[in-house]
Design brief:
globular, alpha+beta, 4-stranded mixed sheet
Length: 218
């Protein structure tokens, strides 16, 4: 039986973007159902039945349902190991995971729609206050990523290797999030260098938020 992969996501969802990149790098075919998180569609029964957190992405592989972008990506890695998205060496694996988690676990969760809405609802935060909040956490993540990359082997084409890894997926999604909040990356030279290489990869460009929005219209 051929693999059936269905992704519930949204063009602006950075978690969905991460999963899209992984699927593209693996050369896997999938269908995607758009769930407009800006309109609250993630709280409808179709998603809440699949994910009690009412969050994206949700991936269905054959008859199994998966949530949380990094868990989905590592599941994809285990089911479809070629090309690898994690190094073979245990230390390097931990390094790549740690780097990706700067955005996946620390920065991104603080800027998602439910957090921004809570800031407005509970603390009466203005749109400008909320954007400053998001820029603050995005900036801290970029600073940490810049430091990590600048300390690493500069001869590597991508973040930590000569092929894209989960680290590059994390970086691409963090930079995409920075664009959402009008935060330039010019002051991070190593990030700019890595992103110039990443942006030469069709798998990253074709799955980027702007590309999905342009292709689907929503």
């Amino acid at each position: 039986m051929s693999d059936s992969i269905n992704l519930h996501g949204f063009w602006r969802s950075l978690g969905t973007y991460r999963v899209r990149i992984a699927l593209a790098l693996k050369g896997l075919n999938y269908s995607e159902n758009s769930v407009n998180v800006l309109k609250g569609e993630q709280f409808q029964d179709a998603i809440s039945r699949l994910n009690p957190q009412c969050a994206l992405p949700v991936m269905i592989h054959n008859d199994s349902t998966f949530t949380q972008s990094l868990a989905i990506i590592e599941y994809i890695e285990e089911c479809f190991p070629t090309p690898p998205l994690l190094p073979a060496n245990a230390f390097e694996k931990a390094l790549v995971r740690s780097f990706a988690l700067i955005t996946v676990a620390d920065a991104h969760p603080l800027t998602v729609p439910r957090v921004r809405k809570q800031l407005a609802h509970q603390f009466n935060a203005s749109n400008d206050d909320i954007e400053q909040w998001a820029r603050h956490w995005s900036r801290l993540a970029l600073e940490a990523m810049e430091t990590r990359l600048s300390e690493n082997d500069k001869s590597k084409i991508f973040c930590f290797s000569n092929e894209p890894s989960i680290a590059d997926i994390g970086l691409a999604s963090q930079v995409a999030g920075a664009r959402f909040f009008n935060l330039p990356i010019d002051s991070y030279p190593t990030i700019c260098e890595k992103m110039n290489r990443i942006n030469q990869c069709d798998e990253f460009v074709a799955t980027a938020p702007e590309a999905i929005k342009a292709r689907t219209g929503h």
